[in-house]
């Protein structure tokens, strides 16, 4: 049997992590976070696929391509979290667990970040733990899959 896959999705501006507002998002790069997530996944016997895009349609297509192929999705939709309803619809059509992930805690920030279009279709949310969240989110996905 082939190794099951967890899909990690990263939304807009996360490609700038490390340089972008380090006082909020820390000094690690997206590559660093993906490496931690990949190690956590492989420790549990999963492969990790990663897609980052600044374009909503690319993320929608990636969610479609996960249907029937990936075991779980971990998604940090970044600013798309707060208004991109096409992501909500696409995630609703995915069968496996969905873990919503944020480096910061959006609920403790500006009011416009308090709405999430991902939360209603997420199995659970990991937010506010910085880079540790990438490991925590993969661990959460694996636990959900082993229930
Ligand atoms: C973020 C929080 C969002 O509000 C913001 O737009 C981001 C990053 C986080 O990881 O903390 O780009 O998703």
What does this structure look like?
The chain is an alpha/beta fold. It has a single domain, classed as 3-Layer(aba) Sandwich (Rossmann fold). It contains 5 helices and 5 strands; from the N terminus they run βααβαβαββα. It has helices spanning 22-25, 30-43, 56-66, 85-92, 132-145; strands spanning 5-10, 47-52, 72-76, 98-102, 124-127. A 5-stranded parallel sheet has the order 2-1-3-4-5, sandwiched between helices. α4 links the parallel β3 (72-76) and β4 (98-102). α2 packs parallel to α5 and α3 runs parallel beside α4. The radius of gyration is 14 Å and the shape is globular. The mean pLDDT is 98. The protein binds 1,3,4-trihydroxy-5-OXO-cyclohexanecarboxylic acid (DQA). 1,3,4-trihydroxy-5-OXO-cyclohexanecarboxylic acid (DQA) binds at residues 13, 76, 78-79, 81, 102-104, 106, 113.
What is the 3D form? globular
Report mean pLDDT, rounded to a whole number. 98
Can you tell me the number of structural domains? 1
Order of secondary-structure elements: EHHEHEHEEH
Main β sheet profile: 5 strands, parallel
CATH topology: Rossmann fold
Computed structural class = alpha/beta
Instruction: Tell me the β content.
Output: 15-25%
| Rg, alpha carbons | 14 Å
Give the cofactors and ligands. 1,3,4-trihydroxy-5-OXO-cyclohexanecarboxylic acid
Indicate the CATH architecture. 3-Layer(aba) Sandwich
Structure annotation, total helices: 5
Assembly category: single chain
CATH class: Alpha Beta
Query: Could you give the count of β-strands?
Result: 5
- Major sheet strand order: 2-1-3-4-5
The termini sit apart by 20 Å
